[in-house]
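Now for today's protein.

===
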Amino acid sequence: MSGRILIIAVVLASAIGAGFFTYVLFRDRAAANPESAAASRSSRDTEAPRSGAEASAPRAETAAGVPRTPRKPAAASVAEAPATVATTPELGTLRIDADVPHAQVFLDRQFVGNAPVTAENVKPGTHTLNVSAEGFDGIAQTIDVEPGPRDVAVRFKEVRLNSTLAVIHKHRVGSCKGQLVATPQGIRYDTDDKDDRFAVALGDLDQFVVDYLDKNLTIKVRKGKQYNFTDPDGNADRLFVFQRDVDKVRQRLAKGDAAASN
């Protein structure tokens, strides 16, 4: 019995000694840094309790134990507007003008209007342009239309000519075949017979006539040779049309109209 009492007394004495030692240690630390102790008590007293997800999330602290200021979430980036993609037009636009005001314009036999005029929504490809003006021969052009705008200038006051005619040149003995080519700059005869080839300006023709019944076209070069041509098929109409077109140009050039550059 006395042994148990002794053990209990020893345990009580040890507990009392440990408690007294802890009290003395805390008192000494508080005395050495009173501001830190007060701040620690104030922080515990004023800190608001957290709840829900906040209570479960660990508090971010610095190395010194001071809570960090939470960062604001980054602003969502503004989506850039898609760049505008330039589209290529699929149809053509013809801006048609003429050197004679109010000339009538037809595209593929459809009346477009009086020049200057714009033909819109023209399908790409080959089209026929006809323009007419009072006092002038009509002008017909084949034009290739591509997507996008195009300017077309029609010149009635420029003299144009590009006529060809297959012919046979009748010699005194025999003949040769070739082709007559007429432009505002003159007439030339292309043939394999080098002795019969010639080129002459329209103003240097002394004679340029068709004998319809004889089916013969006579060309007399000023101070030069005379040539007699016939159609290979004996068609006098072809000779007549060729001679008529060339004569019109000769008359306009004589009046002072300018020859087209091409």
Summary: The radius of gyration is 55 Å. Residues 52-58, 60-64 have pLDDT under 50 and may be disordered. DSSP finds four helices and 16 strands in the chain. The first helix runs from residue 2 to 32.
